[in-house]
Amino acid sequence: MTLLESLKKYSTVVADTGDIDAIARLKPQDATTNPSLLYAAAQRPEYQHLVDEAVEHADKAGGNEKQQAVAFMDRLFVSFGREILQHIPGRVSTEVDAGLSFDREGTLAKARHLIGLYEKEGVSRERVLIKIASTWEGIKAAEELEREGIHCNLTLLFSFAQAVACAEAKVTLISPFVGRIYDFYKKENGGKDIPIEDDPGVASVTKIYDYFKKFGYKTQVMGASFRKVEQITRLAGCDLLTISPDLLEKMQQTQGEITPALTPDHARKSEGEKFHLEEKDFRWMHNEDAMAVDKLSEGIRKFYADARKLEQYARSQVREKVGA
Known about the structure:
This protein has helices at 3-7, 20-26, 35-42, 48-61, 65-85, 104-120, 136-147, 160-168, 178-188, 200-214, 229-233, 245-252, 264-268, 279-287, 290-321; strands at 12-16, 30-32, 92-95, 128-133, 152-157, 173-176, 220-223, 240-243. It is α/β, with parallel strands linked by helices.
């Protein structure tokens, strides 16, 4: 048995890629995408037909170059998502522009628009997760979207405060970033590697998982942003784990069996009291975690830069093929 086969017995495996061929080969349950991944995929000739779809949609949408570029990106997200869903039994995550991270109303409008595009393609909203940054505004937008039957994946999650607020908002899924937490503390440690048993990213997801299961929250935990296989195996039993194709390939090529580290029974015996977060409590508790403050703001900036790179590509496609 390979490590990947063993992992699939305990956690839902999610591919973090826009490469449809890799998804078809690795056979995950779900998939996650983002502007950077889709920008890379759009450069490949085998996906040119999806770029052409986006160009045609932008042309029909009309407006100025900026508006057409936004229409192109929205359509590209949905076209790739639709194709990915043909190769997986589960859900695909589609990201809201990071520029809307502090804009509740803007996030609501974009999420509804993306779901509308999916539904026009015959894709049920049950198969789509709208990916939103775990700011207070993002969490509150997700709370409203969930009431409308639009399911959300709250990303860029680094603090326990973010996790608790998401659970209280009854969001479908959260993505705590194991690797980026590890990166922060590795840098603080002078660049020295951190032993897996002391890995702060692994510890963060374990704490969140235990809290959610102990107190009966329905929000699913999906560990994300892994740097090495050991971080993944240490979180076996987590609801979902989203993994890059290179690490999935490594696990597929390595023989071994995994013992689940996270279980509901163990979680119910964990320490900790249940508490409630109002906005002021959330902001204070999150602010007390220097790592989380640093990585959330950095993550939003990077996601925003990735989105602008995709937008520039969209503008070039619109100018070349639409003649705007």
